[in-house]
Design brief:
Number of helices: 13
Strand order of the largest sheet: 4-10-9-8-7-5-6
Radius of gyration: 21 Å
Oligomer: single chain
Helix content: 25-40%
Shape: globular
Strand content: 15-25%
Distance between the termini: 29 Å
Largest sheet: 7 strands, mixed
Length: about 425
């Protein structure tokens, strides 16, 4: 049955629509941190629909909120007042840390970043954007144009002029050998030099932890140091929190808070986890920036009553159960366990991460050369063992990406680590 569905998939969907596994699986249902495929096999889910199932599969509060709202009205559009949208916007504005914040809802992280780029370029009257090397911000035409990862950038054409800055990858590149303080100093000097060759840059967009890039991040404080430079030039800071937001890193509610010495960002984009599987994205910006557009606009599906009801229920559950604290505690245990497992494996270059966001970078033993074949093999072996994980990385997709729902238990963390240990040792 699965092979038949795969054949139908290939016959009607694009060739470039990626599928995991040699024999792709159809996930039919889930509960908590587990999912089941069409053949009835149970898996521990350590990827959560690409970091989207943030709290748990089939979370009763979210399921109930969606059903109740769907029973009243499913859709109206932003042309009408929408109580769930206003209520969720109020909560997100307060949580964002951005003063006098305004919130615009979209249906995805791609669309959220697209909107942030529109706002920044309109506000600054410039199409020049600074982005980080190894970055990923979505699949729209403008988002692809600022993506610094060739594996996810199918065209060099763009409405934007993009300039790439050092700093998103700590353990590779020309500054990898430096101490953290020296690394930040060198990246700031690179930024200063780059700005000496440009004029009127609109914004810097950066993921506090690069998601598709393999869960890489700079030392804490890098973007705060960048902010000093940006402020002198009037350049806006956009923080892409599509994967790092909502407490996933454990230490902070937002990724930008690891770089908060010079204040909050001008714009913040979010998506994925807030909907726990429902299509929600959005932008938070200070009012001066959000209100800079001089034409009318609406969103047909952004802020849908059903998705907003889901977001409210999911956010409430997250905060009431301190899932950020759970990500810090259980995530810390999981990362240390993974480091212990990988310490004697010559194919593992680095185990990195924060909270429930961990990456294992694989290389050909004795070298720094990425090993995408090994990563694919470990992915397959983990699935055979009953564990779903992801992969990514800017160096030929050789990083295993581990990001379970934030309600992960200690026992489930140990179970997943044991499966992954067997998968790594089998390759």
């Amino acid at each position: 049955m699965t092979r038949s569905l795969h054949e139908r998939h290939r016959a009607v969907l694009p060739d470039w629509l990626a599928l995991y596994y040699r024999e792709p699986i159809e996930i039919t249902h889930g509960e908590g941190r587990h999912v089941w495929d069409a053949g009835g096999k149970k898996y521990l889910d350590f990827f959560g629909g690409i970091l989207t199932t943030m709290t748990a599969h089939a979370l009763p509060e979210v399921t109930k909120a969606v059903a109740e709202q769907a029973g009243r009205i499913i859709h109206s559009s932003t042309l009408y007042l929408d109580r769930p949208m206003v209520e969720l916007a109020e909560r997100i504005a307060q949580l964002s840390g951005i003063p006098d914040a305004r919130v615009f809802f979209t249906t995805s992280g791609t669309e959220a970043n697209d909107t942030a780029l529109l706002l920044a370029t309109a506000y600054r009257g410039s199409n020049q954007i600074l982005a980080m090397r190894n970055s990923y911000h979505g699949r729209s035409f403008s988002a692809v144009g600022i993506t610094g990862n060739h594996g996810w950038s199918p065209t060099s054409l763009s409405p934007l002029q993009t300039l790439y800055v050092h700093g998103g990858v700590r353990a590779r590149g020309p500054y990898a050998h430096l101490s953290d303080a020296q690394f930040i100093q060198a990246c700031v000097a690179d930024l200063e030099d780059l700005l000496g060759h440009t004029r009127n840059v609109a914004a810097l967009i950066a993921e506090p932890i690069q998601g598709v890039g393999g869960f890489t991040s700079p030392p804490d404080g890098l973007y705060a140091a960048f902010r000093e430079v940006l402020n002198r030039h009037g350049i806006l800071w956009i923080t892409d929190e599509v994967q790092t937001g909502w407490g996933r890193t454990g230490d902070h509610f937002w990724g930008w808070q690891a770089h908060a010495q010079n204040g909050p960002p001008d714009l913040l984009t979010f998506a994925k986890g807030i909907g726990n599987g429902m299509s929600i994205g959005g932008v938070v910006a200070r009012a001066e920036v959000m209100n800079c557009l001089d034409s009318n606009s609406i969103s047909t599906f952004g802020g849908s009553p059903v998705t907003m009801a889901a977001g409210l229920a999911n956010l409430g559950h997250l905060l009431e159960h301190d899932l950020q604290g759970n990500a810090r505690r259980v995530g810390g245990l999981l990362i240390e366990r993974l480091r212990a497992i990988c310490a004697q494996l010559p194919a593992v270059r680095e185990v990195r991460g924060r909270g429930l966001m961990a990456g294992i970078e694989l290389v050909r033993p004795g070298t720094d050369e990425a090993d995408p074949e090994a990563a694919a093999a470990v992915l397959e072996a983990a699935r055979e063992g009953g564990l779903l994980i992801g992969k990514g990385g800017g160096h030929d997709t050789s990083v295993l990406r581990i990001a379970p729902p934030l309600s992960l238990t200690v026992a489930e963390a140990e179970e997943g680590a044991a499966i992954l240990e067997r998968a790594l040792n089998s390759v």
